[in-house]
Design goal:
By secondary structure, the chain is an alpha+beta fold. It has 9 helices and 20 strands.
Length: 357
């Protein structure tokens, strides 16, 4: 396993008396693609700015490769930031934009020319040296911004919603480009987004944040399949989140019906939240289901049908390749492995303050 490159220790930060980060602890490994994911105002961009040296924490330390860099200015750090707005110099050619940081470091001209060619080849924009930024598309400008960061040979690339201004097709293309670049360069990527699909597509590790707290840290598969609380389950993809009772290990009751599951350690007859993804709901004839419901909405989504099924007063969201017309009575079942059990938070504060890992 790769060594820990960055260690954020007990980071707190507030603006105008409003707490944005509250005792945040997080480490990032060398050569990892780590994504900070969460809604607006959750603290993810502030975390990135503290890493980049653009903000100083009120409390806590930023340890980089064993050294305390909490108060080090941005230009002294072995990190480069790519912003959503690209921040290209419009009066400079592409080559001059890419060379900007190297000229400040007084690198020789031959070295700079080699680096420009290397960076343009890496982002698939060879021959663009003499073009001006305003002659490029949004996707091309974003790749130049990344090329400009790469030539400085940072150990870490910080990316603050860099694909936010692109249309869907370009965004998807750039996701694959970023994965390729990360693999070719062998550097650590720290990526900020509120787009769940982006996070699931690109990341080795996802950090889900809300209200200044880390809610869950894990691989995309773990975050999606095993959310630790209702916020994560609801934020990452679609979910049916239903109040239930854990009868005993591996047995949960939903709407008065017992469902086998695989979770243990929740006690006996304890109230829990039950998470079931729409694609894991099995629809069948009424006689074969544990619950009975009526299909109330139906939309064709291309890969699957999206249906709403009303059962026991609850609107189930269902994704299925099988189509059941509106008004059809159906049976509902779920494989035990696809039932995720979570503790109910005792209060709203507890719900926000998921303990950092």
């Amino acid at each position: 396993m790769n060594k820990i490159l960055i260690d954020l220790q007990h980071i707190s930060k507030s603006f105008d008396g409003q707490m944005v980060l509250d005792d945040l602890n997080l480490y990032i490994r060398e050569n990892e693609f780590l994504t900070l994911l969460g809604p607006s105002g959750c603290g993810k961009t502030t975390t990135l700015r503290i890493l980049g040296g653009f903000e100083t924490p009120d409390q806590g330390k930023v340890i980089f490769d064993g050294a305390d860099i909490t108060k080090m200015p941005p230009n002294k750090r072995q990190l480069n930031t790519v912003f959503q707005k690209y921040a290209l110099f419009t009066h400079m050619t592409i080559a001059e934009n890419i060379a900007f940081g190297l000229k400040i470091k007084n690198k020789p001209k031959t070295y700079i020319d080699d680096k420009i060619k290397y960076a343009l080849k890496l982002v698939n924009l060879e021959g663009y040296e003499n073009r001006m930024p305003d002659s490029l598309s949004g996707g091309q400008q974003q790749r130049i911004a990344i090329a400009r960061a790469i030539v400085n040979e940072p150990k870490v690339l910080l990316l603050d919603e860099p694909l936010g201004a692109l249309d869907l097709k370009l965004r998807q293309d750039m996701q694959y480009e970023l994965i390729r670049l990360k693999n070719e360069l062998g550097i650590t990527f720290i990526y900020v987004t509120h787009d769940q699909e982006e996070a699931l597509t690109m990341s080795d590790t996802i950090v889900v944040m809300n209200q200044g707290y880390i809610q869950q840290i894990g691989s995309p598969e773990k975050i999606y399949n095993e959310p630790e609380n209702a916020f994560v389950a609801d934020f990452i993809g679609d979910s049916n989140i239903i109040g239930g009772t854990m009868i005993e290990d591996k047995l949960v009751e939903i709407f008065g019906t017992k469902f086998p599951c695989v979770d243990t350690g929740f006690g006996h007859n304890k109230p829990v939240d039950v998470v079931i993804r729409p694609e894991d709901v099995i629809l069948s004839s009424p006689a074969n289901g544990k619950l009975k419901g009526i299909v109330t909405h139906l939309i064709f989504k291309g890969v699957h049908y999206e249906m709403e099924v009303t059962a026991n007063g609850y609107e189930w969201l269902v994704h299925s390749t099988g189509m059941f017309p509106v008004g059809t009575e159906v049976g509902i079942d779920v494989d035990p492995y696809n039932i995720q059990i979570m503790n109910k938070p005792a209060s709203e504060d507890e719900e926000a303050a998921k303990i950092d890992e």
